[in-house]
Structure formats: structure tokens, C-alpha cells
Amino acid sequence: MNTLLRHKGWTWGFRTTILLYFVVLIVLPILGVYYNSFSLGFSNFAGSISDPIAWKSVLLTLKLAVIATVINVLLGTMIAWVLIRYQFPGKALLNSLVDLPFALPTAVGGLMILLLLGPGSLIGGMAEALGFEIVFHQPAIVIAMVFVTFPFVIRAVQPLLEELDASEEEAAYTMGATRSRVFRQVILPSMAPGMIGGGMLAFSRALAEFGAVVLVAGNIPGRTLVSSVFIFGEVESDNPVGAAAVSIILLTLSFLILWLINMLQMRGRRV
């Protein structure tokens, strides 16, 4: 087997297959989106981007994705801390449920939110009695984004906490450091790469969410219409150029975020 793997023909064929797979499934679709967005000229592209409904949908998506990311970083870090540092009944079940958003179709997640927080639900009815609504408004979009991006920060922080040397904490306590100081100067710097990397992945994923959002947003232009739903509407309206123009904004942002994550990880390995 080892002799076969060392054979130059096998190595060349294996690399070619991987590169071809990468080009066909990733590179060509991305190039296709860029090509279609500029297929009618730059002026048409600029017109599609400058459309008030289009750029308002992008700005709304960015704002709500940032809010969802902040919530995920805070909650995800705390949940990762509890799963690593504490023992309690049901811990294994909770740890398994963390990955549930990855397994469920996002439309199912949206339906769950709709049934749990909708006008006919107990929580939705209580919210209406207090004078505000959740579903078909921006809070529902944030909840949907938090749900689909929930595992990223947790799974990024957990291994860092597992690898944290307990002797560093013990040495800090021995030198008279308080718990808050140990957390700030010893534990937090160790968790920071996972919090940042997981947060960036969550933000990038929230930008593109469609299945959960479309069921709970209300899709009102300028108020609850996010960019992914806007893109779907443009395709349904037989305007693929306008859809591609908005798509490359999200695509470029996601690429820059992933590139930044990769750079941070490479710098962390060098350190």
C-alpha cells in the first residue's frame, strides 16, 4: 500500500482529482456569480447595488449578524466553560445537543422558532400582552441567526479550554492572584483565539442564512428584508443579475472573514 501511495502516477492522479473537485464545486460557481453580476456592464451592477431595497437589506443583514455574533460569543463561551469545567447530570446530552443546528435543516429551525414565539404561542402571546412582537420582526431574525450559528463558538473554545494547563492557574493562585485576575490574564487570553475565530465563522454564516430567516422575518423591505431573502426574491422575479450583484457583496465579505481567520490561525501557530 505504501509503495502504491509513493508512486508518482498515483500521487499526480490523486492531486489532480482533489484540485478538479475543488475547481468544479467551489471555484467555478464563485466565478459564475461574479461573471453574472457584471455581465450587463458595471453601470448595471452599480444600479443593482444602489437600489435602496438592495443596500438596505445588506445593511440590515450586517447589523443583525453583528448582534447575533455578539450574543453567540458571550453565550457560546459560557456554555463551553460549563461543559469543560463542571460535571452535572445530562452533560453528555447537552454536549450532543450543541451540534443539533448543524444536523437540522434550517427551515425546521425557523419553524421551531415560529411555533415557539409566534402569535399563537404562549411566549408570543405574553410578548403581545406586553406590547411588542417577536416573530415577523427583527428580534426573530436575530434568534434565527443565533440558532443556526450556535455551535461555532462553543466548538472553537472547548478544545482551547481542554488544552489549558492547570498548573498556570495554580501558579497564579499561589502568587496571590484573585479569581477575576486569573481569568483576565491567564484563561481569557487562551480562549480568545477560539472566541474570535468562532465569532467570525458565526458572523459569516449568519450573513448567508435563508431557511430559518425566511419563515420568521416578515420580509418587509427596509425593515425585515435581509439580503438572502432579497436575493431569492430577485431570482424569483427573473432578475439573476440583480441577485448576483448582492450575492458578491456577501461572498466577498465571507471570503475576507475566512481569509482573516486563516491568517490569525497561522500567526497563532508561529507564536
UniProtKB/TrEMBL annotation:
Its main location: membrane. It is found in: Cell membrane; Membrane. Part of the binding-protein-dependent transport system for molybdenum; probably responsible for the translocation of the substrate across the membrane. Part of the ABC transporter complex CysAWTP (TC 3.A.1.6.1) involved in sulfate/thiosulfate import. Probably responsible for the translocation of the substrate across the membrane. The chain crosses the membrane at residues 12-35, 64-84, 96-116, 136-154, 240-261. It comes from the Bacteria. InterPro entries: CysT_permease, MetI-like, MetI-like_sf, ModB_ABC, Sulph_transpt2. The keyword Magnesium does not apply. Belongs to the binding-protein-dependent transport system permease family. CysTW subfamily. Keywords: Cell membrane, Membrane, Molybdenum, Sulfate transport, Transmembrane, Transmembrane helix, Transport. Pfam families: BPD_transp_1 (PF00528). This is Molybdenum transport system permease. The complex is composed of two ATP-binding proteins (CysA), two transmembrane proteins (CysT and CysW) and a solute-binding protein (CysP). It is a multi-pass membrane protein. Residues 58-261 form the ABC transmembrane type-1 domain. The keyword Transmembrane applies.
